Automatic annotation (TrEMBL):
<keyword id="KW-0813">Transport</keyword>
<dbReference type="GO" id="GO:0006817">
    <property type="term" value="P:phosphate ion transport"/>
</dbReference>
<dbReference type="InterPro" id="IPR050811">
    <property type="entry name" value="Phosphate_ABC_transporter"/>
</dbReference>
<feature type="domain" description="PBP">
    <location>
        <begin position="182"/>
        <end position="294"/>
    </location>
</feature>
<keyword id="KW-0732">Signal</keyword>
<feature type="domain" description="PBP">
    <location>
        <begin position="38"/>
        <end position="159"/>
    </location>
</feature>
<dbReference type="Pfam" id="PF12849">
    <property type="entry name" value="PBP_like_2"/>
</dbReference>
<feature type="signal peptide">
    <location>
        <begin position="1"/>
        <end position="22"/>
    </location>
</feature>
<comment type="function">
    <text>Part of the ABC transporter complex PstSACB involved in phosphate import.</text>
</comment>
<keyword id="KW-0449">Lipoprotein</keyword>
<comment type="subunit">
    <text>The complex is composed of two ATP-binding proteins (PstB), two transmembrane proteins (PstC and PstA) and a solute-binding protein (PstS).</text>
</comment>
<dbReference type="InterPro" id="IPR024370">
    <property type="entry name" value="PBP_domain"/>
</dbReference>
<keyword id="KW-0592">Phosphate transport</keyword>
<comment type="similarity">
    <text>Belongs to the PstS family.</text>
</comment>
<dbReference type="GO" id="GO:0005886">
    <property type="term" value="C:plasma membrane"/>
</dbReference>
<protein>
    <submittedName>
        <fullName>Phosphate ABC transporter substrate-binding protein</fullName>
    </submittedName>
</protein>
<keyword id="KW-0564">Palmitate</keyword>
Length: 297
């Protein structure tokens, strides 16, 4: 009888252990299976006028010339449009099947960065040329710039300003010496790109510590609006997360590169996709690949 009870106890323990192991296995299977590759890819892009969009479609070959030699943006009509970096990140963070793109300097742990052609989007890889999806951060000005605005630009390009740029995850471009200016008063209006805005806010903060009597107003919009505002004289300094267009330069704008930045392709943190080729990204955003099952890993 005792032997029978011992056997029963052992058998019961074995069943419980097996159940526990099976439960873990099912949970893991459930975690891996919750990503349904048959689902459509929810493509997110930026609005027309966005410098990030302009650089992205150029770098991935989504912008192509037609027979007349005109540049055409072939982003799929089905792509959902977001009007800022923060909206892009929030949308991707809340949608398992979405894919988008943002500035490398804006990356945080709410979304996951995808490797492109097996290369991670890092400052080091941009500097050594292995990660090629990179673009300049430009500021634009016109003749007749105020002394205060010029002093702020001098700070941005100084060793002090470039240190702020590096500290915030961007790539410095100037080897100028330390900032030595001093302004007692004045107001500067800076307008444009939502991608450049975060680092510009940090530059503003550092500059005002040295020049507390100055007022700097930063108006976030997009690169094209920033250039238009500078041309119209409604702001002193325009921000663009792309190269300036010939048409903008012809209207009197002068561009200054203040930093380099990568563009990061992002997905939801629970998405199992970790690497895409440049061609796969192009196919996704042009609408040639519409389901995750069409992206081989």
């Amino acid at each position: 009888m005792k032997t029978s009870k011992k056997y029963l106890a052992f058998a019961l323990m074995s069943v419980l252990m097996l159940s526990a192991l099976t439960g873990c296995s099912n949970k893991n299977e459930g975690d891996s299976a919750k990503f349904d590759t048959a689902r459509e890819i929810n493509v997110l892009t930026r609005e027309d006028g966005s410098g990030t969009r302009g650089a992205f479609i150029e770098l991935f070959g989504i912008e192509q010339k037609n027979e007349a030699g005109e540049k055409i943006d072939y982003t799929a009509d089905t792509a959902a449009v977001t009007n800022s970096t923060s909206v892009m990140m929030t949308t991707v963070a809340g949608d398992l099947y979405s894919i988008g793109y943002i500035s490398l300097g804006s990356m945080n742990d709410t979304v996951k960065a995808i490797q492109i052609d097996g290369c991670e989007a890092t400052i080091e890889n941009i500097k050594n040329g292995t990660y090629k999806i990179a673009r300049p951060f430009n500021i634009a000005t016109k003749d007749g710039l105020s002394d205060t605005a010029q002093d702020f630009i001098d700070f941005i390009m100084s060793a002090d300003g470039q240190a702020v740029i590096e500290e915030n995850g961007y790539i410095s471009v100037s080897d100028a010496g330390s900032y030595s200016g001093e302004m007692d008063s004045g107001k500067i209006i800076v307008a444009g790109s939502s991608s450049v805005t975060p680092v510009m806010e940090k530059l503003k903060e550092a500059y005002l510590e040295r020049n507390p009597g100055v007022t700097i107003e930063i108006q976030q919009s997009d690169s094209s609006t920033g250039m238009s505002d500078t041309i119209d004289g409604t702001c002193d300094i325009g921000m663009a997360s792309r190269e300036l267009k010939d048409s903008e330069m012809e209207k009197g704008l002068t561009a200054t590169v203040i930093a380099m930045d990568g563009i990061t392709v992002i997905v939801n943190n629970d998405c199992p996709i970790n690497n895409l080729t440049s061609e796969q990204v192009k196919d996704i955003f042009m609408g040639n690949a519409v389901r995750w099952s069409e992206i081989s890993q």
